[in-house]
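Quick one - first record:
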Amino acid sequence: MATGDSKLTICSDSLIMLGSAPLSSFSEGTDAAQVCDRLFDDIRDLVLLSYPFSFSLKKQALARSVDTPVNEWDYQYPLPSDLLGSGIKAFFISDSSGARPIRDGWEIYGSDIFTNHTTVFIDYQFRPSEDVWPTYFVQLMKYWMAWHIAEAVTDQTTKAQYFQTLAVGTPSENNRGGFMRTAMNIDGASRVQTKFTDFPITAVRN
């Protein structure tokens, strides 16, 4: 994990990349401070939601609401207060070892899950604080910030275009190129790869 990183240091490094002075605080009264302070939170959420980064995932059992759906479903479960966007990555009805997620039998309405299941467990995406971000994500955020504040800070669209390419690659790469690809590869390398232990088609042939 990176150490000592914060919203202020990440924004300051992005400004340094653009050839500007770093920030002393977000209340220093400069245009750069105001732009960074206003844009950072939205950009952070956008980058987190663009990929299921492992450090932004949680597992949680949901508590059933005393309220019940009007029709169709039997139960409703309030979603976690720290859920990021619609970032539910998996839905389970068991906490047993080896439990597998199910894809149907539930729906999201507003801030609740509606279902007929009496127990609900979910994997979901949340918003971790900057001080626990891994180094690769901190660097990715610096590039994204430089990209989005470049024109406002430097009045140069070429710098914005440069950092956009550095952050996510060319338009044909659908925001999956540049350092974004590097960050996804590093994050993915830390996950256990699923292996097929049984394949029915080849089993029948054999």
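second record:
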Amino acid sequence: MRRLTVIGLALIVLGILAFVFPRITYTQDQTTLDLGPVTVEAKKQRTVSIPDIAAGTAVAAGTVLVVTGARRRH
């Protein structure tokens, strides 16, 4: 496979995953108090939203790269 085709397929897969999972949630450990040997940590849950336009753009760009990679082969 050519490099453009592989990059295009990766963009298509990432775009589809962004449509399926529009929000990514992760937990972040944060030190809230540090007094010498005593530390207090808190876990904060963060959420990142992926806009639909970004997912659609990734799929469209991936499709263009796959088609371009296939045409260059012939």
